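Internal tracking record. Fields below are filled automatically when a chain is submitted to the structure queue. Please do not edit lines marked as system-generated. If the sequence contains nonstandard residues, flag them in the REMARKS field before resubmitting.
Queue: standard
Priority: normal
Entity type: single polypeptide chain
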Amino acid sequence: MAFFLASKSLPNLFSKGKTIQNLRFKNEKKNLSSSFKSLNGNVTVIRSLHSFPDPNNGLTEEQTMLRESAYSFGMEAMEPHAKEWDEKEIFPVETLKQAAQMGFGGIYIPEDVGGSGLGRVDASIIFETLSMFCTSTTAYISIHNMCCGLIDKFGTEAQRKKYLPALASMDKFASYCLTEPGSGSDAASLSTKAVKKGDKYILNGSKAFISGGGSSDVYMVMVRTGDNTPAGISCLLVEKGAKGLSFGAKEKKMGWNSQPTRALIFEDCEVPVENLIGNEGDGFKIAMKALDGGRVNIAACSLGAAQRCTDIAREYINGRKQFGKPLSAFQSLQFQVADMAKEVYASRLMVRNAALLLDNADPFATSACAMAKLYTCDSAFKVVDNALQMHGGYGYLKDYPVERFLRDVRVHRILEGSDAVMRIIISRNALKP
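SYSTEM-GENERATED OUTPUT FOLLOWS
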């Protein structure tokens, strides 16, 4: 389905040789902040492009246009359905494919395999913006993109050509599989084994809490092919339908309900040798590289939720009256809004700076990603909780979206490395001689 920004078709803009980074504003520039063409071709005025603090601050013209296109898509294609996706636990496949038409299925992989060829800062802008409308669905998009990036970076040319075009278009979906029932934060202790026999690996073991489990088509699985050290871990692509692969029941979760979560079970599962990503023993290195980017991505998702809940709270207390005046006239609430805006602004600076360091392959990137994830996911949860508190009893009702944001962002302080693991990473680097 085509999606339009001003007078241009965004799917066409993402066609070969025409990424968002090559865009230049022309006569339609003056229209960007006031109206967009909707998915059905009608012009729709976006009422709440104004946020405080303004997410466009510090962005280039191209990045501003990118953000506004993501905003329009989120408002039209995600927000009207997010409540239903959450309540009925719907995995919105068609909406994800529409997102891929926007170029959001392969954000930072090259155009030769159908990607958008953007950078990590651009990706953080997209994830932050989409997360303002459905944090759960956006988080899955970020995981899918993480897998695409790893195949592009560590895969062979044959693997890139085989998998990435269908993943970039989201005709196929990808999942990242590191966690096991007995190894969460201690990822290096994973026990799923892969034994090479002829032209196949035979896998035995299981993975837990896999986003997209049972629905995704390609699983990036960390397995043990060698000794019990990190050097004994390798990375394999396991396709849905592989002999010996099965899935557990869909988990019933507090949040993230628009993406299915299941265990993966390997019982003499057969995987072709050519599905090895990198070399044997590269798996832990690949997993850690994945987590640097994944931490920035998930922090951006938390940031989007915090921004949206700050905006919702501002609107609510300006309109709600008690004791004969708007709630916004009470200094205690004014100060709370100030603190919420401060946290959103500080988080955005950390997320975008960490993303920039990743783009530049800076040695400080790992620490910066851990700091951004720790600070942003913690502060975002507090911001969303404050927004709920400002709504009083209404905030606790599912008629209002704040409680859904609260449930969705809570898990961000656990996955991609818990708060404690982030502190271990930061302190380890801080205390180096």
